[in-house]
Structure formats: structure tokens, C-alpha cells
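Work Package 3 committed the consortium to producing structural models of liganded targets before the mid-term review. Because experimental data for this complex are still outstanding, the team generated a predictive model from sequence and the ligand definition alone, so that downstream docking and mutagenesis planning could proceed in parallel. The input record is reproduced below exactly as it was submitted to the modelling pipeline, together with the SMILES string for magnesium ion.
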Amino acid sequence: MLTLANAFKSISRSLGRSLLLGVIVAVIAAAACVALAIRGAAASAQADALASIKITGVINRDVQKLMTAVQGSTAEGTEPSRPDATALAQVMAEYPDLGLGQLQTYAESSHVADFNYSASASLDTAGEIEPYSSSSSEEEETDETTTGGWGGLPGGGSMPGGQGGFSTGDVTVLGASAESALTGFISGSQRITTGSMIDLTAADDACLVSNQFALFNALATGDEIDLANPQDEAETHSCQISGLYDVDATAADQRRLSGLTALDPANQIYVSYPTLAAWADASAAAATVSDDGQSTALSLQLSATYVFSSPDDYSAFEAELRAQGLSDYYTLSSTDLNSYEASAVPLKNLSSFATTLLWLVLGVGGAILIAVSVFTVRERKYEVGVYTAIGLPKVQVALQFATEVLAVTMAGVVVGLGAGAAAAPSVANNLLSAQVTQAEADSSAQDQNFGRLPMSSGGPGNMNMDRAGFGSQAVSYIDQVNAAVDLEVAGWLAAAGLGLAVAASFAGVVVVMRYEPLTILANRT
Amino acid sequence: MTADSNSVPALAADPILRLDKIGYSYDGSALVLSNLTWDFQPGRLYGIIGRSGAGKTTLLSLLAGLAAPTAGTILFDGQDLSRLDRYRYRRRDVGVVFQSFNLLPHLTAVENVELSMRASGKPIPEKRATALALLDKVGLSEALAHRRILKLSGGEQQRVAIARALSYSPRVVLADEPTGNLDLATQDDIIDIMGALAEEGRCVIIVTHSPEVARCADQLYELKAAAVQGRRRRRPQGTA
Ligand SMILES: Nc1ncnc2c1ncn2[C@@H]1O[C@H](COP(=O)(O)OP(=O)(O)OP(=O)(O)O)[C@@H](O)[C@H]1O
Ligand SMILES: [Mg+2]
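The resulting structure, written out as C-alpha cells with the ligand in place, is given here.
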């Protein structure tokens, strides 16, 4: 009681000293408050961004790694040379693309939330049907077949098992296992406008075609269309149109640039996976193999997608794949996770900046606070002498000084918290936008290094419509955070303030306890 | 206490404070005090005289329990002072008027007095009024009583220090040159107050250079630097 009374009298009677301490604490608290708010906001913005994306992953054979391996084994000790084609063919055969069975086995992992797959095949149109083309000049016949091996490799055509060559027909037929595999319909860039969805579990030869394709060929739902194997025009497969879908114009524009009709979304025909698999089986049964080893069988490109509920599941799944013995020549990759990580770069920078700031402020602030506290007590040596001379125990005097430091510190924390809370949102967003600008500058410099125009995206098309193109994707950075000072931040700050105050008081107490009243008073004239 | 204490009270009463062959040196350097054996009775006024530097303030510090003698013992009520709680002793049993006052500058005169009252833990009713009355008694008006210490003159501060030492009615009052900064009229007032305290049964010990104060003492001790010698002088009979 006496201690408290003395403490508050002392604070109010020595305003200059109290203000100095209070202002120091307020500045520390304001800076710490902003730092804490930014950290919290960055974390929740990242969590929000993560929650809003679906993390999907695909397992691919890492061809580049295989090529490097072949190069490494043959070119040892000699000057670097092109990979030996035979050796490459051997490793390619040794590490083939994973089959559906294998992929499905992996999908049984508890870390996989969902699994879907689709296969695509390139077919020619047969009969009256023509692929949709937006260019008015029809002189260029579109049934040319592009045969490519592993481009530029000598003898690339001799790849075994149908891996080596693919032919581009007029249209792409995509057989999906589940609706989740139809990413265009999921995202809304494609939607059925007439007719109905096909049954993805049945091999019923039902299909979906685009409105453009239907209009171009005067087709309606219920009509049958014939498609031919590009390697063997005599082999045809037919399907019945169950529904017509619309293609988002902007999505369509990008793939059309390639000039290959099969890559135009308007020329995509959707069937169920069982339907396409049945076609492939029939084709394989009737196929002939030419002298150079090329089969005329319809080749399917399999694309399997694993869906994860969190990045942790994704990493755990990858670890599990390795544990199950999946060779390093196969990689699990996720474009969503990559683009999320790219978009979160400025935010992460901001967050680590805030963390550094926080520790710096607490460290330097704590040191200043302790120094001020010790200095103050030394200055108040005489006071300690008087209190103890009139019989107040040293512990009580120390307690009084600690109470003073604590009261002033808490007042400083409250003021700093107010100032910090007012400043945090705009400071956070200003700092973040500086980081975003930095990240944009970095990535556009990167694009130019790769010889890309700043605006270009897409790049050379990929055979698989569902995979992202090779070109750089425009990253949309997370550029807004809500750095509101909530109860958690306030609580943290109060705790930090308390900790600092206790440290500072303790330092003062130690100094007080060292004093003997006689020595203090005797030294005074 | 003997039952028959009215016959020769000064000699028969048990001493409230007794110095038993005490010695003192600051930090092990030369002895300031050596081999002192003095008794102090309650109800008497003692004067301690001696040259500057003789160790008067040092002795008072030992009696006040601010330091322990480096040789011998000080007995308070027959108990070794160094074994007692010296903080409690300081805040309840002994009141000290320091040579350099030792008041708290951030407090007012009356607050300094009140602080000691509260620190003593004694049940003193109406502390503010009592403190003001006490200050008035030592010649400090109410207006001055509400001033901060640094805004008071040396003599005024000295009176605050006296009031503070008396405020919680300690059994022993120690005063180091309590009249050093006071005019003669005020000095007389202070001597009267000290005399009255002794009459009340307290033990009053005053360090002084003033012949007037020395003359009023029931007993005088003289400190001689390093070598110590006690000398007794009776208060003139008939002066009360
Ligand atoms: N803190 C100290 N450390 C060391 N020596 C001290 C200390 N205080 C006093 N002394 C020495 O002890 C001796 C006695 O000092 P003291 O203050 O007791 O003298 P005094 O009799 O009160 O003198 P005065 O009449 O001038 O007040 C002096 O020689 C002084 O120098
Ligand atoms: Mg002295």
C-alpha cells in the first residue's frame, strides 16, 4: 500500500524521468505492434490463399534427368558429347511412363484427398466432319500428321512401346475418369449449354463437343460423329453427341495461336475414360507394326492428378512415394503449389522483415530499457539511502522502483499499441506493395533473360491440354493484407512489455540491493 | 527496572543503549572509534561533543543502526543490536536528525514527515494533522509545510528533519547538529522540545558544537579523535 503510494507519487513528481521511460517504451511497443500485426496478417493471408487453392500434383518421368544420367555415364573422362541414342533409348525403356495401375496404387495413400485421371488421344475427323478452324483460309489441309520423336535426337523415331512418336490429328479426344478431371468445367471456362453431361463411368460412346465444332459441322445432340485413327484412316470410332459446351473466348485464343487445330479447345471432344480405353483396346488389337517398329495403334496420353488438402499432405505423399521405391527419375510436381509459392513471395519477404524488425526492436529496446532503468536507479541512489535509512526494507524499495517501471512501461505499451494499431494497416500494405514491385521487377527481368516478351504467356503448346504451357505464367501476387491489431497481438505485446519491464525492474532491483544506506548518505555532503 | 527507581534514577535505571568496547573503521582503514564503553539511559538528554572529524557522526550512525561496529557490541534494551532487525529498529525505535537532513526532495515537508509515520507501522491517527502540528511546533508554518524540500532553506529543512525524527514517537532520538542552521530563538525552541522529549522518558542524544545545547544536557560525552575518553558533566542543578 505504502509502496504503491510511494511509487505513484514518485512517478507524478518526476514527470521528466517517467516521460522519458514511457516514450521509449511507447516507441518500442508501436514498432513491435506493427511488426506483430504484419506477421499475423501475412500468416493469415497466406493461410487464406492456401485455403482458396486446390493443391493438385502429377507424377511425371523426368526426361531431363534421364538424359543427364546417360550423358554422365557415357561422357565420363571425355569431352561433353550428345547423349548416346541407344543408351538413352535403353533408360527410357527402363523407366517408362507410369501405368494407370501404378498411379492408382499410389492414390490409395491416406494423404491423397482425391484422385482423377484422363487420357487423351489425337484423332482425325472422318466423313463429312471437319475440325473447327477460325481462320477463313481453308486451303491448308488439316489432316497433316506431325510425327515427332524426342526432337533433335538422332534416331529418335526408334523409341519402343509407342513412347517415341505422337501424331497430331484434327481433334483431341479426352477420356475423363471423373468430373474433377474436367478442369475446364470445374473452373468455368467451359460449360454445357445444350444437352446433358456424359456418364464418365460407362463405355457408352457418348461425347461432348463444343458449340463451335457443332455449328461448323451442323451437328446437334443425338448426332453421331466418326473419328479416324491418324495412323490408320480405315480404323474409325464413332460417338453420339450427348451435349454441347461453350468455350471461354480468352481461354480459346491462347491455344489457337499454335495453328494446330487439335490444340484448339473448340476441337476437344470429351468422352468417358472407359470409352476411350475401349477404343484404344480395339485399335491395339487391329494394329500393325511397321518395319521401323512404329505401331499404328491409337496412342493414349495418360494424365493422372492427385488432389491434396494441404501442402503438408503433398510433401508427405512425396516422401511416401520415395519410401515405396519410386525412382528419382519420376517427379511429383504441382503447378498450383508452385504458383501459390510464387505469389506468396512478397508476403514471405514482408513476414520475415517483420520478424527481424520484431526481434531487433525487442532486443535493442530491451537493452535500452535496462540501461535506462539501471541509470535511473543509480541516479536515485540518494533516494534509496533515505528510504532505507528511515527503515523501509530494501526489498520494499526495490519493489517500489519495479512498480514504477512497470506502471510507466504498461502506460507506454498502451500508448504504443494505440499508435501501432493506427499505423499498422497502411504500413503493412505500403511495405507489401514495395515487395510486390520488387518481385515483379525480378520476374520481368527473368522473362527478358529468357527472351520472352513481358506480356507473352503460353509459349509452345503442349500436347496435353490440361497441363500448363511451358512459358512463364503471370504470377498474381498477394498484394493486400489486413494488418489489424487484434487481441492476440495486444496480448503478445502486453506479455512482451511485461517481460521487458520485469527485466528492467530486475536490473534496477539488483542495483538497489547492492546499496548500503550509510555509504550512500555518508558520501553526500 | 528496580522498584525503587526514584532515589537515584540516572544511575539505577537500565541503559536503553549501551556501547560495549566498540570500535569502528571505514573499510578496514584507520580506526575512527576505538574501545568506547558508554551508557545511555531513557529520560535523559545527552550531549556528544568533539572536534570536527572526531567521529561524532560515525558514532551516531552506529547508534542509529545504519552500520554495525567493527569491534564490540551495541546493546539496545539489553539486546545485541546487530542481532535485531535493524530496519525495524530504524523505523520504530530510533528517530534520527541527520547532519545533512536526508529528506526526499520530490516530496513536500509534510509528506516527508508522513512517510516516516507510515513506514513505522505504528497506529498514528490523523497523520496529516499530526504532521502539520509537529511542523508547526518546530516553527514551520503550514504554507511552508506544503512546499517541496528543495524550495526550503537549510534551517527550514533542518526543522522538517527534526519533525520527521519525532513523528512516530521513537524511544531514542539521535540528532546530529540539529541547531546548526538555526537562529538563536529557534535554537531555544528546539532545545526546549528536546528537553521535553527527555522528560517524557525518551533517550535524547545530541551531537553539538553549540555551548547552549551542551549546557542543557544531562550528561556530556566528549569524543577525542582516535584516542577515546569519556568525561561526565552534570547538568546544573535547578534548571529543568
Ligand atoms: N564514508 C567514509 N569513509 C571513510 N572515512 C570516513 C567516512 N566518513 C567519515 N570518515 C572519516 O571518519 C572520521 C570521522 O568522521 P565523522 O563524520 O564521524 O566526523 P564528525 O565528528 O562528525 O565531524 P564533523 O563535526 O565535522 O561533522 C573523519 O576522519 C572522516 O574523514
Ligand atoms: Mg558530523
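Reviewers should note the following from the model. Confidence is low (pLDDT under 50) at residues 1-10, 227-240 of chain B. These observations will guide the Year 2 experiments.
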